[in-house]
């Protein structure tokens, strides 16, 4: 029922690369202090918050590595935690995923405990499917929630639109398509009703790509709450991007040439979709400097990121393609399966937008 736990960033790896920042990375999350404070203030006064931004703007990272560490430290007057945080992504089974998130992680061992957990999860899902008040009912039944406030975070909420999309269903079985649309609608109504229940102090937070804002009118009541409490993730200023570069390096006890910092700032624009590319380039720079330090040829005591490392990784514009070529070179004879895998993991939606297509590993194998 708490935040997701991952192996966080640290002195040996201070940059996440292309993946979003997670809760465990918060010590290495720099450049967003003002945004974290503004988002917290909005959360504190609104039961429903939509964190909106373009692809790559850092929505998920802002919530997971910025906001959540702040509120999990918050205490009431009796020194008890104020918030219980529950996170999920809708994926291809929104109600089942919501039930699993509410039931919490399964026990590590013990057959009886696993059976009890599975039974509890099934009971929660049944409640969710029976009524639009099912989420409220389920929360009241969960005895492990002892905090006065509950925050339910639905990351990548735009997945619910793809789930309900007839074209995305990939089937001519219209009963199946209608069932998907009904489930998507039920999922949204559960969230809306929970946010209206003042007795439970439930807060709903969505992260959503801004180009899906218009899709909200599919669901009654959703456009109104999104419009009334929307947090549009701003682009990082040049100073904030510099903090995002220097902060993790200094935290890890390393150094970076000032000229290289300026090159990175100049080469990476303030367009939000450039942030993951910048993080990837920094990860590659860190690895390049580490290999050079290991040889003892230069700066043997302190890892230092230099312009020589920048050239070695291909610069900002080529760092990603150079890395991809290196990986592909390690897979001789597998060009076709790699191409098939990439094609299977992406698709165009009905408006021609390129979107991720998350697949279970077994299905990916079957398709490729």
Please explain how this structure is put together.
A hairpin with a 5-residue loop joins strand 8 and strand 9. Helix 4 runs antiparallel to helix 5 and helix 12 packs across helix 14. The protein folds into 3 domains: 202 residues, P-loop containing nucleotide triphosphate hydrolases (Rossmann fold), CATH 3.40.50.300; 92 residues; 33 residues, no CATH class. The strands form 3 sheets. A 5-stranded parallel sheet has the order 2-3-4-1-5, with helices on both faces. Strands 6-7 form a two-stranded parallel ribbon. The N terminus is likely disordered. The protein is 51% helix and 11% strand. By secondary structure, it is an alpha/beta fold.
What's the number of domains?
Answer: 3
Total count of helical runs of at least 4 residues: 16
Helix content: 40-55%
Please, what is the CATH homologous superfamily of the largest domain? P-loop containing nucleotide triphosphate hydrolases
- Proportion of β residues? 5-15%
Q: Briefly, what CATH class of the largest domain?
A: Alpha Beta
Q: Which spans of ≥5 residues are poorly predicted at pLDDT below 50? A: 1-5
> In order across it, which strands form the biggest sheet?
2-3-4-1-5
The average pLDDT score comes to 89
Rounded to the nearest angstrom, the distance between the terminal CA atoms is: 36 Å
How does the SSE layout of this entry go?
Elements: H1 33-45, E1 48-53, H2 59-72, E2 83-88, H3 94-103, H4 111-130, H5 134-141, E3 149-154, H6 159-164, H7 166-169, H8 174-196, E4 202-209, H9 222-228, E5 230-232, H10 238-251, E6 255-256, H11 258-267, H12 275-295, E7 304-305, H13 307-312, H14 315-329, H15 335-344, E8 346-348, E9 354-356, H16 361-367
Parallel strand pairs: 1-4, 1-5, 2-3, 3-4, 6-7
Antiparallel strand pairs: 8-9
């Amino acid at each position: 029922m708490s935040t997701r736990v991952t192996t966080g960033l640290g002195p040996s790896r201070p940059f996440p690369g292309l993946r979003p920042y997670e809760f465990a990375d918060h010590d290495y999350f720099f450049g967003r202090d003002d945004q974290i404070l503004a988002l917290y203030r909005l959360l504190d006064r609104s039961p429903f918050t939509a964190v909106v931004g373009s692809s790559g703007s850092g929505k998920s990272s802002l919530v997971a590595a910025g906001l959540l560490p702040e509120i999990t430290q918050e205490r009431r007057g009796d020194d008890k935690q104020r918030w219980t945080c529950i996170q999920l992504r809708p994926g291809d089974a929104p109600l089942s995923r919501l039930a699993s998130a509410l039931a919490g992680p399964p026990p590590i061992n013990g057959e009886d405990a696993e059976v009890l957990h599975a039974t509890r999860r099934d009971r929660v899902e049944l409640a969710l499917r029976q009524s639009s008040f099912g989420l409220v009912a389920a929360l009241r039944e969960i005895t492990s929630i002892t905090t006065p406030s509950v925050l339910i975070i639905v990351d990548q909420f735009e997945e619910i639109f793809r789930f309900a999309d007839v074209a995305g269903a990939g089937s001519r079985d219209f009963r199946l398509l209608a069932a998907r649309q009904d489930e998507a609608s039920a999922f949204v109504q559960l969230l809306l009703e929970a946010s209206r229940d003042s007795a439970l102090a439930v807060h709903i937070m969505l992260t959503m790509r801004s180009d899906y804002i218009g899709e909200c009118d599919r669901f009654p009541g959703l456009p109104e709450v999104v419009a009334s409490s929307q947090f549009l993730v701003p682009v990082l200023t040049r100073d904030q991007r510099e903090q995002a570069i220097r902060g993790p390096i200094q935290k890890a006890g390393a150094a970076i040439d000032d000229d290289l910092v300026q090159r990175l700032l100049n080469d990476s624009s303030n367009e939000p979709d450039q942030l993951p590319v910048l993080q990837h380039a920094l990860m590659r720079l860190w690895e390049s400097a580490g290999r050079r330090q290991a040889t003892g040829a230069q700066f043997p005591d302190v890892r230092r990121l230099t312009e020589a490392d920048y050239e070695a990784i291909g610069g900002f514009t080529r760092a990603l393609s150079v890395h991809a070529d290196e990986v592909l070179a390690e897979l001789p004879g597998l060009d076709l399966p790699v191409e098939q895998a990439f094609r299977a993991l992406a698709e165009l939606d009905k408006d021609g937008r390129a979107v991720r297509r998350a697949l279970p590993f077994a299905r990916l194998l079957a398709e490729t």
